[in-house]
């Protein structure tokens, strides 16, 4: 999910990925391991963004560089970061424009600021 989250603010196209987490409430939920799935998911990852984000959330289990040989230990660490770390509350901030996306009950509100204003004025 994090790989797909970037700002949707019009004209913000510089430094808009990854969004930066702030003031988070992080919950760890153990999930059954499916290391084959994790291995197949690796090509879809933006490795540097994932490692930076995991570290900003307090997890240092992933190596700086993506390893070429995929050990079971590495796949388990990646499973933990991708499948077990959940941001329940907090916010994500765009480094490009500074827009804040609140997170409540584990769900980020990705509605653009202009749409929020329009929705409020139309109600």
CATH architecture label name: Single Sheet
Q: What fraction, in percent, of the residue positions are helical?
A: 25-40%
How much of the sequence is in beta strands? 15-25%
Please mark out the parts with pLDDT under 50 across 5 or more consecutive residues, or reply none.
none
What does this structure look like?
The chain is of the alpha+beta class and 123 residues long. It has a single domain, classed as N-terminal domain of TfIIb (Single Sheet). Helices cover 33% and strands 20% of the residues. The chain contains four helices and four strands. The protein has helices at 35-41, 47-56, 72-84, 113-122; strands spanning 20-28, 85-93, 100-104, 107-108. A four-stranded antiparallel sheet has the order 1-2-3-4. A hairpin with a 2-residue loop joins strand 3 (100-104) and strand 4. The longest helix is centred in the middle third of the chain and has 13 residues, at 72-84. It is globular.
Key traits:
alpha+beta; N-terminal domain of TfIIb; 33% helix
What topology does this entry show?
Blueprint: E1 20-28, H1 35-41, H2 47-56, H3 72-84, E2 85-93, E3 100-104, E4 107-108, H4 113-122
Question: Quick recap of the structure?
Answer:
Belongs to the TRM112 family. With 123 residues, this protein is α+β, with helices and mostly antiparallel strands. 33% of the residues lie in helices and 20% in strands.
């Amino acid at each position: 999910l994090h790989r797909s989250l970037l700002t949707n603010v019009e004209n913000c196209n510089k430094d808009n990925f990854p969004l930066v987490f702030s003031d988070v409430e992080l919950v760890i939920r153990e999930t059954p391991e499916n290391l084959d799935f994790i291995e197949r998911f690796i090509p879809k990852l933006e490795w540097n963004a994932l490692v930076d984000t995991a570290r900003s959330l307090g997890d240092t289990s992933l190596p700086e560089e993506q390893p070429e040989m995929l050990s079971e230990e590495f796949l388990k660490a990646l499973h933990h970061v991708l499948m077990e770390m959940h941001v329940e509350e907090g916010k994500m901030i765009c480094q490009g424009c500074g827009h804040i996306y609140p997170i409540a009950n584990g769900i980020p509100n990705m509605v653009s600021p202009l749409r929020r204003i329009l929705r409020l004025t139309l109600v």
